[in-house]
Amino acid sequence: MNTSAATRLVAGRELKVKLRDKTFVFSTLFFLLFAVGATVLPAMFGGGPSSVAVADESLAPKLREAGLKVRVVADPERLVRDGDVDAAVVAGPQVLAMTDAPGDVVRALSTEPEVRLLDPDAVEPVVGFLVAFVFAMVFFFTSLTFGLQIAQSVTEEKQTRMVEILVAAVPVRALLAGKVLAGGILALAQVALIALVTIVGAQLTDGGSDLLPVLAPALVWFVPFFVFGFVMLAALWAAVGALVNRQEDIGGASTPVQLVVMLPFFAVIFLRDNALVMTIMSYVPFSSPTAMPVRLFDGDAAGWEPFVSLAVLAISAAVTLAAGARLYEGSLLRTNGRTSWASAWRDREMQRL
Amino acid sequence: MTTVLHLEAVSRRFGERQVLQDVTFDVVAGRMTGFVGANGAGKTTTMRIILGVLAADAGTVTWQGTPLTRAVRRGFGYMPEERGLYPKMTVRDQLIYLSRLHGLGPGTAKRNAEALIERLSLGERAGDPLENLSLGNQQRAQIAAALVHEPEVLVLDEPFSGLDPLAVDTVVAVLRERTARGVPVLFSSHQLDVVERLCDDLVIIAGGQIRAAGPRQHLRESYAQPRYTLHVDGDAGWLRDELGVSLVDLDGPRAVFDLAGDADDQTILRNALSRGPVRSFGPVTPSLAEIFREVTR
Predict the structure, then answer these.
(1) Across-strand partners of B246?
(2) How far apart are CA A214 and CA A299, in angstroms?
């Protein structure tokens, strides 16, 4: 059996264990419900055209044209007070409503001036912020939670001494590769599932139809950036897991890795308006998975830029993977106390086998 | 040619400490080889080197004449000193997983797992997570994990510790089935009485060096001193005056004594018979514990 077959077996076990893990299943369900809720519920509650009552028959066609439900009655105000309609139009013309001004009714009765946009492609600031926030959030959360799970799975094998049986049977790199692969598949699948539910929900309720075409190019780039960025961090998480002997020690040992996940997250959110910082961050490996797609969405990046940035990230991921593998191999069989990064790096026992 | 797992001049040091020094011995196919030594003598390090979990600084390990590679070692079964299986995985699942990792197909892996579960009486608990099993059952599962891929060589570090006497018998029976099929078994143990009862061959290690190795019976004979025990009806005190006899222990009608090199044991027996009935007379074979003390002194 070669390394790739062993990798598949290891990854298969990790997937099976995770899919049976109640915490994982429930957290995924929770995220899905949240996505459904965020897209569908506002449309359900705020939704539908207003119904409007009029006394004067001549106003009705104009309102119907605007897509409103129109009722012609003798006493429109009473219907509004009874809650039978959202608004009424009485002589004046005057619009009656209970608490909020009904925008669609007002618009139907007004003449709007012609608007000419000088920069029609520019993204609304709020939408721009939200997109940056979502990209950063998705990368931050998945690399943190799935990375931590990889570390825990490595430590579990050390803590239970399972690792000695495994190392005697399969190449150490297959163990590492299998864990990173399984973590990557689960992370990507979870994100894709949530994204799919969100998009479908938005489409059904007509909320995101304007956003999707604008978002698509950034989204397409986000996937490869996400994959390479995840692999890079996963290798570090696996190394962290191998350094310690007990689950309780992962927190302390993983501080450097947590920092390289957290700092780019806050930097992308808070320094989004600083073009220079964003340009730099879109090339720095740990922040490029979010910074580059955000710049693409904002329309600030030239066509060649994501290719260069992705190449830099891919090379960094390969280097980090090699370094992570070396740390992993150098510490996996050291079961007395916590191994330092330096001594894990120097330990070449595995190379002698 | 008999098939053997052969260690030749294996050495290993950890920092300043020489843990193994020129370790050489054979584990012969179809035989149970007991590996005995004090704590820290080098048993676990030796086993780890055989399994490729540790590297040797010098020396070689060969199986059927060829040096061990990862592919060859994948056909070995290993039970590490520090026990470990996945606590939250069921016994059945881990057995199947482990035999798959050792290169078996899904069908064979499942069949082997079921057969071993049955053989080691784990049937009722096979679907439970390992952590829910009693320690004794966890130990059986651990042994099953070492056997599930039909290994051609078995290396077991303290396989009997933590087992009750009945479980020891079950495990021994399972291991005997393997040796009957020509599998060499190397096992270490602190329990010298268990080793004495089970092993065909014996390897004694102390301070990282092999002090004695060979068939158990052979060792017993070669370490046997010219010591005898005699049981008569009357008092055996007369032995004191026999030529070449030095008494080790005298308790009324029973005596244990050593004979000088030129003295004849049959003369003593005849003298004893001339004084009255002799209930028993014979050479004393040393126990494993005595040999162990002797060679590791």
Answers:
(1) B258
(2) 10
Q: Which residues of B touch A349 (CB under 8 A)?
A: 54-55
Edge-to-edge strand list for the sheet holding B32-37: B76-79, B153-156, B185-188, B32-37, B201-206, B209-215
Q: Looking at CA atoms only, how far is residue A168 from chain B in angstroms?
A: 6
Sorted by where each begins, the domain ranges of chain A are 3-42+123-352, 51-101
- DSSP for A166-203, written as a single string: HHHHS-HHHHHHHHHHHHHHHHHHHHHHHHHHHHHHHH
Contacts of A171 by beta carbon, 8 Å cutoff, 6+ apart: A3, A6, B70
Q: How far apart are CA B250 and CA B259, in angstroms?
A: 15
* B86 dihedral zone (left: phi>0; alpha: psi -120 to 50; beta): beta
Return the exposure string of A303-334: e unless at least 16 CB atoms fall within 10 Å of the residue's CB, then b: eebbeebbebbbebbeebbeebbbbbbbbbbb
Nearest to A353 among B55, B83, B103 (CB): B55
In the three-class reduction of DSSP (H, G, I as helix; E, B as strand; rest coil), residue B92 is classed as: helix
Residue B93 token pair? 């699942």
pLDDT of A104 higher than 90: no
Q: Is the ipTM of this complex over 0.85?
A: no
| Paired tokens of A81 | 């007070």
B238: tokens are 């007369």
Q: Where are the beta strands (DSSP E) in chain B?
A: 4-14, 17-28, 32-37, 58-63, 66-67, 76-79, 153-156, 185-188, 201-206, 209-215, 227-232, 245-251, 254-259, 278-283
Return the half-sphere exposure (C-beta side, CA atoms, 13 A cut-off) of residue A264: 32
Q: Which residues of B touch A156 (CB under 8 A)?
A: 86-87
- The alpha carbon of residue A20 is apart from the nearest alpha carbon of chain B, in Å, by 10
Partnered with residue B45 across adjacent β-strands are none
pTM over 0.90: no
Residue whose tokens read 């891919």:
A314
- A349 min Cα distance to partner chain B (Å): 7
The three-point CA angle A153-A156-A160 to 5° equals: 150
The 10 Å CB-count burial string (b at 16+, else e) for B208-239 is bbbbbbeebeebbeebeeeebebbbeeebeeb
Give yes or no for residue A274 having a pLDDT over 80.
yes
Q: Which residues sit opposite B60 in a β-bridge?
A: B8
How distant, in Å, are the alpha carbons of B186, B192, B219 from that of B290?
22, 10, 11
List, for residues B212-251, the tens digit of each pLDDT value.
999 988 888 888 778 899 999 988 888 888 888 888 889 9
Strands (E), chain A: 51-54, 69-72, 87-90, 94-97
**Strand pairing of A87-90 and A94-97?**
antiparallel
